[in-house]
């Protein structure tokens, strides 16, 4: 039995082939095999202020003073942030900073060490 990919709409594992299309019986979504391979190859690359690609676990440095929302404190330029985690969204770095706790940062305000 051929191993078909899960449905991109509902993630159902019960997809089947109908001619040149793949079909999901649970949500009735139809797509082509070519579309599946094109979408699967695209992964968002998050880059720092200098254009270097960032990865989970990297260490970065803050390049400008950042106001901390909901606090009167400021995250100073040159603060080193260890073990970052990349996430989707506007603030695409999730991290813990000593003295501040858990924070989300924008990749445009950091550089890779």
Describe it:
The protein is built from one helix and eleven strands. The protein has one helix at about 35-40; strands spanning about 15-20, 20-25, 30, 60, 65, 75, 80, 85, 95, 100-105, 110. The strands form four sheets. A three-stranded antiparallel beta sheet has the order 1-2-3. A hairpin with a 6-residue loop joins strand 2 (about 20-25) and strand 3.
List keywords for this structure.
single chain; 113 residues; mainly beta; three-stranded antiparallel β-sheet; 1 helix; 29% strand; elongated; YjdM_N
Describe the SSE topology.
Elements lengths: L15 E3 L2 E3 L6 E3 H9 L18 E3 L3 E2 L6 E2 L4 E2 L3 E2 L6 E5 L3 E5 L4 E3 L1
Antiparallel strand pairs: 1-2, 2-3, 4-7, 4-11, 5-6, 8-9, 9-10
TL;DR?
Belongs to the YjdM family. The chain has 1 helix and 11 strands.
Major sheet description: 3 strands, antiparallel
Mean pLDDT: 87
C-alpha-based Rg, rounded: 21 Å
The tally of strands reads 11
Question: Which percent range fits the helix content?
Answer: under 10%
The stretches of 5 or more residues where confidence is low (pLDDT under 50) are: none
